[in-house]
What does this fold into?
Amino acid sequence: MSLSIIFRALQTAEKAHRGQVRQFGGEPYIVHPIAVAKLLSTVSGDLEVITAGILHDTLEDTKLSEVGLGVLFGSRVLALVKEVTRISTHADGNRTVRRALDAEHYGKASPDGKTIKLADMADNLKDIAELDPGFAKVYFKEAAALLPKLAGGAPDLYNKVFTIISNYQRSGS
It folds into this structure.
């Protein structure tokens, strides 16, 4: 496997997310998958993990299908993306119920899937704390509840997320 898979993933994610902007910063959405990939590259040299990190929101937030993702990137990348894709829907109940369903799903992920979710959380937590203090109170509480389910992911990223949450809680925000 060569680095070309990373470039293909970047092109695919950019096309799939084209026109989308980050909810908390207004920048093009592709900034987030790139940040996740950068975090993953600090703890893993596995190109399929980094690829899945780039594509982690495509099934949830774009028209890219599971079949299309599998054809383009193979079964392992597809499986990793599915491990970190929210499974709950509004029909499942209120936000608390939905987040609990999703937490159970993420808790069953492989160590690589948990690592991708940790990288996603690390980037999201940083942005939400800075850009939406009101929502941050809810999001950080949910993240603190989810974190134990992600034990088994990369220890460096687990510790990074733990530290972000702890610093936020200590600041009294």
About this structure: Residues 4-170 form a domain with the Hypothetical protein af1432 fold (CATH 1.10.3210.10). The mean pLDDT is 95. Residues 111-131 form the longest helix (21 residues). The two ends are 45 Å apart (CA to CA).
